[in-house]
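ARCHIVE CARD
SHELF: 3
SLOT: left
DATA:
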Amino acid sequence: MMKQIQHFIGETDPYLFDLKHLTIKESTMEYTVPSDSCLVFSDFYKITQIASSLGSLALAKTMDVTEKTYFLGEKLRIRKIDNRSLDKGLKYCARSIEYSSRKGKSLVDILDEHNQLAYTFELDYFIFSEDSFYRLFKNYAITHHEPSTRTSLTVEKVEIEEIESSFFRIVIQPFSKEDCAGHFNQYPIVAAVFVVKQLLCAIEQFFEVKGIGLEQKKLNVDSLEMFLNVAVPIDTVLHSKIYYHQIAKESYVFVCPVCDDTTEYGNYLITVNYSFL
C-alpha cells in the first residue's frame, strides 16, 4: 500500500524519507526519526521537509488516490511549543483534511523523545491531477530523468551583500536538478524547504556579522511561516531583502520576501531566539 502511495505523490528518494520508519494507523500516519539524528540550526529545514512529505502521504491516504497526484504547498506554519533544546529523536504524527479534490490540509504533531509535544505544523495544499499539473508546469518538465546519487543538499553558501539598521540583502545561488532530485522528478521544482535552509544560513551569518557571538549560544527557530506564490525553477539566482526586528532580549523576527529579477516567489516569516549553552 505505502509503495503505491509513494508512487502516486511524485516524491521519491532522496527527497522522501525512508519509509521503513513509517507507521500507518486508522486515522493518522506516524514517522519516527532515529534518536541519534542530531540537527544544527540550519538543518531545521529537515524537520519541515519530513512533516511536509508525511502530510502529503497522509492526505493521499485520506483521498484514497489511485493515480498520480501532485500536492503543492500553499501556506505552511510550524511553531515550537517551548524553549527546550530539541534536535533528535523526534516523532511525527500526521492527520489530514480533504476540503475538495483540489484543496487539502495536513496537521502534524511533532513529539520529542519523551513523547511530549515539541512542535505543531500545518500545511495547506493545492492538489493537481497529472494532466492539470503538466498543463501548469510543462515549462518545468524534463524529458529524461536519471536517478540521483545525492544524499544531502549541497548548495553554495549564501552571500550577504549589506546589513543596514532594519534589513540586509542576500543572494541565494541557483539550485540544480540534482539538488531537487526526488521532488517531482520529471518537474524539478525547488522545494520551499530548501529555500528555508539558505535563509537560516543567512540568519546565522547575520548574527556573526552583527557581533552577536554564538560560541556560548544556541540558535533556535521559534516559528516559521511560508506564503508561497509561484514555484521556484532550478538554475535561478534568488534574492531577498530580509527585514529584521528584535522583539525581545534574545529573540528576533525576520521577514524574507524571496524573488529573482522579475518574480516574487513567496514570503517567509521566521522567528529565532538564542539560548545559552
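SLOT: right
DATA:
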Amino acid sequence: MKIQIEEGKNHSLYAYKDDELLFYSTIKFYWNKRIIKIFDKNNELILEVKSKMIFCEAKYSFLFQNEDLAKNIMKINCDEIHFGENQYLNRKKDDFFSLNLNGSYFLKEIKIGEIKQKWWRSKKKILLDLGNNENLKFLEYIIVHILVVNTDDD
C-alpha cells in the first residue's frame, strides 16, 4: 500500500491514498512552542500536540487525544511512536550522509514500511510504502508520526 504526504498552505501536511484524503495536520507557531493538530478525513480532531525545542530536539506532549481515533498512542518523539502495551515503531534513516531523507519504520527488528523524501524540494512530498496488507494495522500510527514530526521540522 502506498501513501503520499504533501505539504499544503501554512506548513500543513496532507496524507492521501489513491487521491483520497486520509489525514491532515495544521500548526500554530508561538514564541517558545508549536501546537500541531492532526485531523481525519472528516475534519475530526484526533490528536493535538505541543512541541518545544529542548537542546535542539523537539519534545512532544499531548494536549488532546481522541481515544476512539488515536488508538492509545502513548508517546511520540522524533524517531519513535509508542502505543498499546509496550509496542512502538522506530524510524531509522537509510543513510546518515544521504541527500535524501529516506528511511524505514520497524516494529522491533521487523521492517513495516519505507519512506522516501528528498530534502531539497520547496514543498515537502513524502512517499510511504507499507508493502503488504499485514502491515495495515500500523498505517495510522505511521501517518500520525510522520504528520507530527514533519509538520514540526521547519
